[in-house]
Design a protein that fits this description.
The complex is a heterodimer.
Chain A (H helix, E strand, L loop, with lengths): L21 H21 L23 E8 L6 H20 L7 E8 L4 H12 L4 E5 L4 H13 L7 E2 L17 E2 L5 H14 L5 E6 L2 H16 L6 E5 L10 H8 L5 E5 L2 H13 L6 E3 L5 H9 L5 H4 L3 E5 L10 H13 L25 H18 L10 H6 L4 E2 L5 E2 L13 E6 L2 E4 L3 H5 L3
Chain B lengths: L2 H14 L2 H54 L3 H11 L5 E7 L5 E4 L7 H4 L9 E5 L3 E10 L5 E8 H54 L16 H13 L5 H8 L1
Antiparallel strand pairs in B: 1-2, 1-5, 3-4, 4-5
Chain lengths: 457, 255
């Protein structure tokens, strides 16, 4: 339970990935020595002296040699792989930027707080980050139930102009009124992912689409996407089953499988996290539900595949019906400059998970084993690349008030992922493309032909 | 039989006279406790149930009022997030929101919507009791959203939990009543014993007086100085037991 200033913060899950340098301390000290007499001369504290207006919240420029990004994410619990891999991908890029002198002379640091993928800690973390003047913006939040609950906090502190950048969720609340104006998204939405999956299933004659989902805001967001996409084709959902957030791989999903089996679906779209979705796919296979089982990007494909393949005598056949949608291209597609850079920097920096002194986890569990490359860490990498570009566009004196304008300047930016990034008023989501992947051995590869792989015989 | 033993037996015989009185006391107390318990159970369960339904209505109305903009914005993730917060309240076991056409827009059921609910009349908002297989018994209340044109919110409150609350409330009252019953019975026994002791002394005196005529020691005559009915009876017994030639003595004793 520590915070940087020594105060016991909520949960104290505080760290800053890079410590303040000696040079910045000297600079701060000199600034204080020079600034104090000047402030006295201006008579800011003297009765009768001319009024010196205080800077508007958010208009104050960043003073020292660092930019702090506030992060609340899952670093513990059943979804810790998502927060950890997203962090690792971002750190690979930020380490490189910082080694090269930072952005306009400022290092990029992350202040990490663990929410365990639970809404209440996320709200508390967000309040803590909003009240920390050193935090320039919020970044890399993980999950819909967490982000959905944190959005009202952003609205409450709207005068501070702290924006949420690139949350790891495709849900609608941060894309639509009344909270859309407080967030910027990079990835495609769940609505786009589920629409793509539905369209492809219907295209190969699999018309009875059912949904297995996490019974919270995230699951409902995906459920709504499937429902909407089916309605566009005049279809309705064949069936639905739910599970509780935080369910582990060891849990039985037989009842959920049986509920769906009774509705004779042609395909199931899962809106969940990797542990529960892997358990569902496992039990579906065991109970003979041999139909495509699709997952959206949030699932954490590599972690899901790892769970399903471990200790299984025939892992290829066991995972044969999986198909996952992604919001970044395949990390094997080295024809893309961003993917090549990702490979290079992940190898060079090999970012470890946040250390104990960097983030005080809500719950301790088994040590996390990192994945060398993954869609999640690639997304973290791409997020870091984009935010660095935006901060760079703000020049030598970046202010929170100037963030929105800087984002809107990104109109046709080549991020190196095969799709140009466009932001603007009314367009707060930079990328639109959805990719489809299937397991091949121990990794997911692009799906070339839906008919060949999942066509109805 | 020894004289002392006879006297104790006689004393016991006297106490038997009050057996019915003691039983009467006990029965009366038990009747009072039973009557109060029944009234209390009925009153507590009715009040708690009314409060339960009232709370459910308030919660359902609260969700319904908060849901209008969310529903009109088609923001079902936020709607789910809203009901997820309410379902954390201990007594609420499920919440579901249906559209005006009866489509389920958000709910808290795991692993699926129960068949009983799927088959129920989704237009009614009056409180209904449901018994859902695998889940338990519930009282369900509904509240229309935008007078029903945007949908309906329904909240299921756990009747098992209500039963536990009633048991706890009634149990506390019964505990108190049982203590009163035990104290009352013990007090009645003590009072009956108190009332029967002079009679036992009188019986003992009469028995000893009779045996003194056969040569035993005369009884202690302390009882003759009592100024109550027992004293009168003792003096009368002594008078009756004195032979006729001792009439002067009889008259003196009786004076």
């Amino acid at each position: 339970m520590r915070s940087r200033d020594g105060a016991a913060g909520k949960g104290g899950r505080v760290c800053e990935t890079n410590r303040m340098t000696r040079r910045s301390l000297i600079r701060r000290g000199l600034g204080a020595l020079i600034g104090a007499p000047l402030a006295g001369r201006l008579g800011a504290e003297t009765p009768g002296a001319p009024h010196v207006p205080r800077p508007r919240p958010g208009s104050r420029p960043v003073r020292d040699d660092r930019i702090v990004l506030g992060v609340s994410a899952a670093f513990s619990g059943p979804s810790r792989a998502l927060g950890t891999e997203l962090y690792r991908g971002s750190m690979a890029y930020f380490n490189q930027v910082n080694e090269n002198g930072g952005v306009n002379g400022r290092r990029i640091e992350m202040k990490l707080l663990d929410d365990g993928y639970q809404p209440d800690p996320c709200v508390a973390n967000t309040i803590e980050l909003m009240q920390d003047e050193s935090v320039f913006l919020l970044f890399n939040y993980v999950g819909t139930p967490t982000v959905t609950r944190a959005l009202p906090v952003l609205k409450k502190f709207r005068d501070q102009q702290v924006y949420l950048f690139f949350p790891f969720t495709g849900a609608e609340p941060q894309r639509e009124p009344p909270y859309g104006e407080f967030a910027f998204n990079l990835r495609a939405s769940y609505r786009q992912e589920t629409a793509g999956l539905v369209n492809n299933f219907l295209g190969i004659g699999r018309r009875r689409v059912a949904v297995f989902y996490q019974n919270d805001a995230y699951g409902r967001s995906g459920w709504a996407g499937v429902r909407e996409a089916l309605a566009a084709h005049g279809e309705t959902m064949a069936g639905e089953a739910t599970y509780t957030r935080g369910t582990q791989f060891g849990a039985s999903m037989r009842r959920a499988v049986e509920i769906l089996q009774a509705r004779s679906p042609d395909a199931v779209i899962c809106i969940g996290a990797y542990q529960a979705c892997a358990a569902f796919a496992r039990d579906a296979e065991v109970l003979g539900l041999h139909i495509p089982v699709a997952n959206v990007s949030f699932v954490g494909s590599e972690n899901l595949l790892g769970l399903m393949r471990d200790n299984h005598s025939d892992p290829d056949s066991h995972t044969r019906w999986l198909v996952n949608s992604q919001v970044v291209p395949s990390y094997e597609d080295t024809s893309l400059p961003a993917v090549r850079e990702y490979h290079e920097l992940m190898e060079r920096h090999a970012p470890p998970p946040p250390a104990a002194e960097q983030v005080d986890r809500i719950a301790e569990g088994e040590p996390y084993e990192t994945v060398s490359r993954s869609f999640v860490s690639l997304e973290g990498f791409v997020n870091a690349k984009m935010i660095t570009e935006i901060i760079g566009r703000m020049g030598d004196n970046p202010t929170r008030a100037g963030i929105e304008e800087a984002v809107f300047q990104v109109r046709n930016y080549n991020l190196g992922v095969g799709e140009r990034v466009r932001f603007g008023p009314g367009r707060r989501q930079g990328l639109q493309r959805v990719y489809y992947t299937v397991p091949e051995g121990d990794r997911f590869v692009p799906l070339a032909d839906w008919e060949e792989r999942f066509g109805v015989a | 039989m020894r004289p002392g033993a006879d006297a104790r037996a006689d004393a016991l015989t006297v106490r038997k006279l009050f057996r019915k009185t003691r039983f009467g006391f006990f029965a009366l107390f038990a009747l009072v406790v039973l009557a109060i318990s029944i009234l209390s159970i009925r009153a507590v369960s009715r009040e708690l149930r009314d409060e339960y339904v009232s709370n459910s209505r308030s919660i359902a109305k609260n969700i319904a009022d908060s849901s209008v903009d969310i529903l009109l914005n088609r923001n079902l993730a936020t709607l789910q997030s809203l009901i997820d917060q309410f379902v954390e309240i201990q007594s609420i076991r499920y919440i579901y929101i249906t559209s005006d056409t009866g489509e389920f827009l958000a709910h808290t059921f795991i692993p699926g919507i129960p068949d009983q609910i799927l088959a129920s009349d989704l237009s009614a908002t009056e409180p209904v009791e449901r018994s859902i297989a695998g889940m338990g018994d519930f009282v369900e209340v509904g509240s229309p959203i935008l007078s029903g044109v945007a949908g309906t919110v329904r909240v299921g409150m756990d009747l098992e939990l209500l039963g536990l609350k009633i048991q706890r409330a009634v149990g506390q009252q019964l505990y108190l009543l049982c203590i009163i019953l035990v104290v009352g019975v013990l007090a009645s026994i003590w009072l009956v014993n108190l009332a029967s002791k002079p009679l036992a002394d009188l019986l003992d005196y009469a028995a000893r007086l009779a045996r003194s005529r056969a040569g035993d020691a005369p009884p202690d005559e302390a009882i003759l100085v009592r100024d109550d009915e027992v004293g009168d009876m003792a003096r009368l017994i002594k008078y009756a037991a004195t032979p006729p030639d001792d009439s002067r003595e009889r008259a003196g004793s009786g004076g």
